[in-house]
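Record type: monomer structure entry
Structure origin: computed from sequence
Chain ID: A
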Amino acid sequence: MDNLNQNIERLRRTIETQAEREMRTPKDFDFLSERIFEKVHQTVSPTTLKRMWGYLSEAVAPRISTLNILSQFVGFDDWESFCQDESVRESEQEAETTDGQNDSHPNSEDPIQSPRRWSARWVIAALAVVVVLVALAWTSLRQSSQPPTAYVLKQGEHFPTCMDYLKLFGISDSVKYWGRVLPHHPNIVVWGPEYHHPHWHNYGNKDSMMPTITEHWEPADADSLMVAMRNRDKYEHERRLNEVRITFMKNLVDTGYVFVGIYRLSLQQSDTINCVWERVADECDLNNLDYLDELRN
């Protein structure tokens, strides 16, 4: 396999790892296309993705523009940056292999006669023990931070920061905190919108804890044609996803977050201008999240 195909294969594996999903069915490619649009605001069609994964038998090499977008999806500036990063790893692996071969050479120093080498091995063993102990302590800490048995999240519960509620769902970083897909539940999102956001607005009746949340994208300096296109794309996108959102509204009662309920897109009230999210539940059973699939349209 040449370098190009090796890098494309690495990119596919990296994408599946970040998307937490293997690309096996048409629904998987639809899902990935939507996730790419959400993260980098650029479109790669499901058909293009199917070709890249070999799901379609067409022997068409992916365009550089497509590889650039996919590289950005996994955190790189472009395709060249992704390839360079992999090249560095290959160089390191080759160096490690060379070192290992040198150690096993017949003329190498006899470890029995080398106290210095044995000292190094004792240091490595001690470090390994420390790593294991730290891992066990971290696991214990993570388990202690998990929600207690029969934990039910109730409307109005307050959280000072996004991490205070994300950790309840096993999410340990705050990247893209305003819309995190729930681990192992691709159509359920932990949502943290900002009340009256300057670009997305997110308005509704705060006095009754937002029975609906109207999402409308319109920055102050945006072109009206761009606003219309973006909101139409957003509406079609959300209809396809058919998500359920576990919602924590920021700046509703103070600068923190308050749990306002479980929401889904209102097909009756939404249109190509506004996405209207309607509350369908006031509580969330954190130990039985599978039931949320039943709340979708």
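Annotation 1: Residues 103-114 have pLDDT under 50 and may be disordered.
Annotation 2: Residues 115-144 form the longest helix (30 residues).
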